[in-house]
Amino acid sequence: MSDVYLNGSFMPASEARISPMDRGFLFGDGIYEVIPSYQGKLVGFTPHIDRMQRGLAEIGIQFDWSHAQWLEMIRQLLDLNGNGDLGIYLHVSRGTDSKRGHAFPSGVTPTVFAFTFAINPPPTGLPGSAKSFQVASAQDLRWKRCHIKSTALLGNVLHHQQGVDAGYQETILFNDQDELTEGSSCNAFIVKDGVISTPPLDHQILPGITRLLLLHILRTHSTLTVQERVISKAEVLDADEVWLTSSSKELMPVVAIDGKPVGSGEVGPVWHQAQQLFAAHKFDDPHQ
């Protein structure tokens, strides 16, 4: 049985208790992060905690842990769970009130919860290392504040299940202007004629940490052309390569959309180059 962290204590998961009056349970009123760790080495720790702090501030949850306090707790949690290839789930809800009401209560203490879960070893980018994805497409029906990493994920869950029900691993989303936003649980990139493009950040898109790291790595350590721009559905369907990015899966090459092949229908050469660069530089975080 794995150990978890809850409100100042480490304990077996079977002993963790959260009140049903917690606003995270009643309203999805909270912020979360998932940080990957490979054999005790964290990927993107600083930008993950930066994003959590921004999200908490945006929804008005008062919780002022420093990066050092988060890192100390995470290190202890990883040690308790064996320091393998693990994802660390961090969750801060507004806390528990004595009644259910939509308005923010005063005088409640945030609930802080964290646990680890096994993740696959990362792909190296070498030939044969890729797990390719086939995805569905759909109109993006989620809320208009997707830049907040809220624990209220029903819209994302429904879109993800839409793809699963159709026999795919993910669903990529387009707004009502037929412009690419992201996947149900990941950011999206396309490659055309060697140029890498991804939608610009706005309220439609989560500012993904793997997206952030990948853009920095590509711009710093390669001569590849990288763009942040509006991308039409027609461009996605005509792309040479399509990738999805997330913290727990890194760079995922998409080989088919709605059953139709992307490019050649095989994992593309630019993905191999990008994944190798990401594998080489993803631990470049001076603050951990």
Describe the 3D structure:
The chain has 2 domains: 3-118, D-amino Acid Aminotransferase, Chain A, domain 1 (2-Layer Sandwich); 133-281, D-amino Acid Aminotransferase, Chain A, domain 2 (Alpha-Beta Barrel), CATH 3.20.10.10. Helix content is 26%, strand content 28%. It is built from 7 helices and 15 strands. It has helices at 23-27, 45-58, 67-80, 154-165, 209-221, 233-237, 269-281, and strands at residues 3-6, 9-12, 30-38, 41-42, 85-93, 111-118, 133-139, 170-174, 180-183, 187-192, 195-198, 226-228, 241-246, 250-257, 260-261. Helix 5 packs across helix 7. The two termini are 28 Å apart. 38% of the residues are buried.
Summary of the model, kept short:
Helix content is 26%, strand content 28%.
Which fold name corresponds to the CATH topology of the largest domain? D-amino Acid Aminotransferase, Chain A, domain 2
Q: Alpha-carbon distance between the termini?
A: 28 Å
Find the count of extended strands (DSSP E, 2+ residues).
Answer: 15
Shape: globular
Percent of residues in β-strands: 25-35%
Q: Assign the CATH class of the largest domain.
A: Alpha Beta
